[in-house]
Amino acid sequence: GAVVSQHPSWVICKSGTSVKIECRSLDFQATTMFWYRQFPKQSLMLMATSNEGSKATYEQGVEKDKFLINHASLTLSTLTVTSAHPEDSSFYICSVKFEHFYEQYFGPGTRLTVT
Amino acid sequence: EDKVVQSPLSLVVHEGDTVTLNCSYEVTNFRSLLWYKQEKKAPTFLFMLTSSGIEKKSGRLSSILDKKELFSILNITATQTGDSAVYLCAVHSGGSNYKLTFGKGTLLTVNP
User: Cβ separation of B41 and A108 shorter than 8 Å?
Assistant: First the structure.
């Protein structure tokens, strides 16, 4: 069964509004959660890495004030896209890493469309 | 900067064919290489390889790593239409944050 859930699975919002995406680890506590963005026909681009209880580490070129990450517990991380613009329209995917394992397990993704 | 290159970028075959997908990498402090299958949604984990020469197998899929030549292959035998997907290769290059560097993927289309 699913290891990671994301909510919502798709969202349409107006330009200038903010959108929150949740990522939950269902069965196990995740030491680290990752947020990726994927544009059509492109590979996954890592946006940020978050560890529970500490500030997220953002990749170069990703605006931390625009993409707010809150990793409040070992099973929940949220990504808030603030003041969304049409160019933020993309597929946002989270993944989790469990202690002592290298592989990451991905959530089903959230398709964001900003009109 | 870590780099992962997959080839071919796309491939069209007929059911029953065997395909080989390639992944080469240049990373510092290599730890492991992972293969994922992505259909319409998020990637699903296939294999993780850490040692050279040891084949990982799951049904019709198999994969092997060559750490000397810095590449891995993913084989799919007796392909089925359900194998149609993007296959992603990713490398974990150590560091405390465990981040993965992904290749661009190979789009496999299996026609009936």
Answer: yes
Q: Do A103 and B34 touch (CB under 8 A)?
A: yes
In order, the DSSP letters of A48-109 are: EEEETTSPPEEPTT--TTTEEEEEEETTEEEEEE-S--GGG-EEEEEEEE-TT---EEE---
Chains A & B: contacts with CB separation below 8 Å: 51
Contact B48 A105 (CB under 8 A): no
Say how many C-beta atoms besides its own lie within 10 A of residue A74's C-beta.
19
- CA closest to A99 among chain B residues: B98
Mean pLDDT over B17-30 rounds to: 94
Note the pLDDT tens digit of each residue in A76-113: 999 999 999 999 999 999 999 887 777 788 999 999 99
Q: Are the beta carbons of B26 and B2 closer than 8 angstroms? A: yes
Q: CB–CB of A76/A96 below 8 Å? A: no
